[in-house]
Amino acid sequence: MTATAVLPPPDVVAPGPGAPPPRPRRQAGPSVRVLTTALTILSLALLGFGAYVGFVSRLHHDRAQLTAYANFRKELALGLAPTGPTRPEDPAKLLALGTAVAVLDIPKLHRKEVVFEGTTGAVLQSGPGHRRDTPLPGQSGVSVIMGRATTYGGPFGGLATLVPGDEFTVLTGQGEHRYRVLDVRHGGMPQPPRPAAGAGRLTLTTAYGGMFVPSDALRVDADLVSEVMPTPRARLGASQLLPAEQVMAIDTGVWFPLVLVGEALLLAVALLSAARVFWGTWQTWIVAVPVVGFLGLMTADYVSRLLPNLM
């Protein structure tokens, strides 16, 4: 019986005489796998922060506006909307930060925004904020509303396109008030003369300069051209505002929760990186996505408050 030679498959090259055997592929050690997993998760978290600032923050703003608008309309119908710096149900207490106080409608920009009390970064995440040491729109004196230019929907991103003569309205608990733009200024441009006694003015303020590197503030001054409403006595001065309520301020009060959430995120990354080695890749990623996603969103929210409040 003749022996039949066994030939290698066509795509496999047999080693020639004296050729060294092929070297086996070297597997990465556990420490290397842990390190690469950790770097992958942290890289995805960093990309997630960019997505949060550019996209998710707008969803936060839109949801807050939808809810606040429905609630404010109800308060207007019941006569419970604020008309001054104190709570309608308890005049001895100031309005809480984040209380809806007005609806700003700028037809030229196709923007209708609920305005909240306060100008901290946290308040301005939901929409424009009323500076608490100024009267409400529609009243005598100079009212100030501040809003973001880029992040969280960028409600004031188009203010620079307004020109003298443009009109817009503000709805408060005292009715609808009509304003006409007087001037648009930024940098070292001079302020317009103060309004006459008993007259009203509104200054809209936002960031000016690069999209994510603002260099200054932009202001739109508009005179009240409808009837001036009764003006309650001021309860706060400029010196009594929180540091985070100033123009282009950052909210330093978030450092403590940011450190705690950041530590939780790093601990979760470390545990999940080790779990991949001893548990398995797919099992680890099934747990990692919701855990890291939740902690990453919290971290991004706190980090965004360390950016200028008008950005």
Query: What would you report as the Rg, rounded to the nearest angstrom?
Result: 29 Å
Number of helical stretches of at least 4 residues: 4
Q: Strand fraction band?
A: 15-25%
Question: Helix and strand string, N-terminal first?
Answer: HEEEEHEEEEEEHH
Mean pLDDT across all amino acids: 85
Q: What class would the helix/strand composition place it in?
A: alpha+beta
**Major sheet attributes:** 8 strands, mixed, barrel
Report the end-to-end length measured between terminal Cα atoms.
88 Å
Shape: elongated
CATH second-level architecture of the largest domain: Beta Barrel
| Count of individual domains | 2
Briefly, what CATH class of the largest domain?
Answer: Mainly Beta
CATH topology heading of the largest domain:
Sortase, Chain: A
Going across the biggest sheet, name each strand in turn: 3-4-5-6-9-10-8-7
**Total number of β-strand segments?**
10
**Quaternary class:** single chain
Task: Pick out the low-confidence regions.
Answer: none
Full CATH superfamily name of the largest domain: Sortase
